[in-house]
Amino acid sequence: MSLLSIGKSGLLAAQVGLSTTGNNITNAGVAGYSRQAAIQSDTATQDQGFGFVGSGTEVSAVRRYYDNFLAVQLRNAESSQASLDAYTKQISQVDNLLADPTAGLSPALQDFFNGVQDATSNPASAASRQAMLSSANSLAGRFQGLSARLTEIASGVNGQITSNVGEINSFAKEIAALNNTIAGLSVDGKAPNDLLDHRDQMLTELNKLVKTTVIPGDNNTLTVEFGTGQPLVVGNTAFQLATSTSPTDASRVTVGYQSPSGAFSALPDSVLTGGQLGGLITFRDGTMDRAQNSLGQVAAGLAVSFNAQHVLGQDQNGALGTPFFAPINAYVGVNSHNSQASTASVSAVVTDASKLTASDYSVDFDGTNFNVTRLSDGQITQINPFPQTVPQTIDGVDYTITGAPQAKDNFLVRPTYNAANDFKVAITDRTKIALAAPIATAAPTANAGNAKISAGTVDPNYLTPGNALAAPVTLTYDKASGSLSGFPPAQDVTVTVNGVATVYPAGTPSVPYTDGAAISFGGINFNISGTPADLDTFTVGPNISGVGDSRNGALLAGLQTKNILDNGNATYQTTYAQMVNFVGNKAREAQISGSAADAAVAQATTQQQSVSGVNLDEEAANLLRYQQAYQASGKVMQVASTLFDVLLNIR
């Protein structure tokens, strides 16, 4: 009878082995499946007096071949791969947009300045002036088109972030439910292997969305965290994430926790790393914002600097120039969490192209002072005094703050983010293009000496009330004193010789004459060179015939190659080229890193599969082994039955 039991135990063990092997074979292609093996052990032996005799075998466990270290390595590698893939897809769109030789900004910028140069060459030509306006409108359209496309990409990123958060919540709920089921089935050290595989696969898919950290718990449960320890799944509880509009910028979404009551608590972007979500956040907060801001920096810089020169000219009607482009107002976002009792208001207008940066700024009231923080490097500038009497200029932007603030009031200022979209031509009448200079100089032919006076220019001081010339000023040279007289009595006169400036206060009767010296008063600048004779005169007066004059047009055209932006270190084209180069380098870095991530995933997969993967050749061998064991055990039982029959037939 013992032989029959031994055969039966072997038969049952072989049957379990066959079932386990068959299960491995049929699930070899199932994602996340870990191979299993039936573990046999012998049963208790019995003392027969002459020695101990075995009583058969039993299946002690069905082992799941799984290495947590290798699984974590693979999940981390796949999280990095997914992050880089998401980043690369987005940055490639921006790279292709900005670097396009026909659709990019450079051709439109070149066409515009070609139009300025043509109008300067033919200031009296209506066709040339109209062509300049047309090229300016084309440039504005290109700025707006690029900005619209970047905004479209940013909107797509917002949509993907929202979609990813929804998927993360779904995986979190499923993992929490599996935790609960697995805990209920994990009794006496046994675990439901298939459910563990399914949960691990959910963790793999979750890590492709956001990088997580897994902490083992009791009864085979897991705690899932992300970022710097933010909980996502604890036992059978899944925390709910959600998206909401940024409190200071309606054009972007933020990610945070949503309580059962519906309250939203935003999380900092820095905790959302890895996976598709991390890649999207990195792209949006880094490359996307910088590209939009840098494009806006070129647009704002061009508008402000071109306007600054244009208003110093004279149009065909004899009037001073007006702004050629519309003013650039910075985006100001009022934090929705500000106190309802606050009446504070912040406005910001770009006024100095050379000081303008591509950074965003946070304006905060600490209860006593307003502080403006440059977000790119954390530099803080205090609004002083407050309340203000005049706007305060910070990094080329005039800040005006009014109203009664409350402590912790916060505003987001983005000086250049919307500048490309707001870039518009303010002039529609070609006669309003100020190509001429508002002043004219002359040296009468009756002068006995050979001294000459330059054509003259004006600077922004000329626009100060009272400085613009209403009538000609006649300067007379006195040989005895070697000086010039006749300057307006209400204005200082500055004489610059070899770079050294000497200021003569208003009312000074005369100033010394030096050959070639630069002379300026009331925003008017000119040079007199040569040897004047006694009582020779020189006139400086308003330009009364500027139709064919293009002195200001030449200065406008010269802006193309002038280092204006970045504290006078870059032109419009070089600033745009730097942005294109930055995006291109980032795109290339992402591609290289993506290739490395692909290799890391392949290597981690190989290592993980060497432990958990199903080898069909090995399983085929096991199938034959268990088949033979089954047949042999059956033979044992047959022999035991024959022997039993022999005993029964003895008489």
Automatic annotation (TrEMBL):
Keywords: Bacterial flagellum, Cell projection, Cilium, Flagellum, Secreted. One of its GO terms (biological process) is bacterial-type flagellum assembly. It is found in: Bacterial flagellum; Secreted. Residues 611-650 form the Flagellar basal-body/hook protein C-terminal domain. Residues 335-415 form the Flagellar hook-associated protein 1 D2-like domain. Residues 438-542 form the Flagellar hook-associated protein 1 D3 domain. Its main location: other. GO terms for cellular component: bacterial-type flagellum hook; extracellular region. It comes from the Bacteria. Residues 91-325 form the Flagellar hook-associated protein FlgK helical domain. One of its GO terms (molecular function) is structural molecule activity. It holds the Pfam family Flg_bbr_C. Belongs to the flagella basal body rod proteins family. PANTHER family: FLAGELLAR HOOK-ASSOCIATED PROTEIN 1 (PTHR30033:SF1). This is Flagellar hook-associated protein 1. The gene is flgK.
